[in-house]
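Standup notes
- HV: blocked on the assembly model, inputs below
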Amino acid sequence: DTGVSQNPRHKITKRGQNVTFRCDPISEHNRLYWYRQTLGQGPEFLTYFQNEAQLEKSRLLSDRFSAERPKGSFSTLEIQRTEQGDSAMYLCASSVRGSSYEQYFGPGTRLTVT
Amino acid sequence: RKEVEQDPGPFNVPEGATVAFNCTYSNSASQSFFWYRQDCRKEPKLLMSVYSSGNEDGRFTAQLNRASQYISLLIRDSKLSDSATYLCVVNPVNWGKLQFGAGTQVVVTP
């Protein structure tokens, strides 16, 4: 399977705990994006990497959220001190520069904060 | 006002019929446009890019009207497998920060 992969697929955590999600993009894609989706809404942009550089962060990304892409390949998204409002589907997408920014999504990580 | 607005539906469509729906976007400087399809509890999948001249992919036709800032999707000869939520997506900047509408639900019935 050469698509975008995400792990874990599901995560249940207690409020106040830290969680980390991983995304492996399509191998030749240099751009990686994180989105968050809640029920009945479209995905909302969180942050974007070009290679290892994080070039844009949404105001949705509070200081409890941090994302990295250390070697320009896989990326991690960490949420510290989780809150119930963090419950959502976290989607990762990747694209190739010059492709009109067509983005391909992974299956997502569904986070439930209890 | 939301940046990308869609009629949530549902559009109930008999199998074999044609269905069409629009979305509107607020940023006149938007660079590129897409339709994604999303099945329940799955990730969005790219259905088609939308070009200024309009484009067709099999039973699907997309149109862009920059003057009125809307995008349309038409599905001909609807199949049961076309039942899904269709997300209108706009790229308002030049590096790929996509803005999604909340989706239009289509239900194709036998």
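- HV (later): unblocked. The interface with chain A takes residues 4, 31-32, 34, 41-46, 49, 87, 89, 91, 95-103 of chain B (CB under 8 Å). The two ends of chain B are 37 Å apart (CA to CA).
- Next: hand off to the docking folks.
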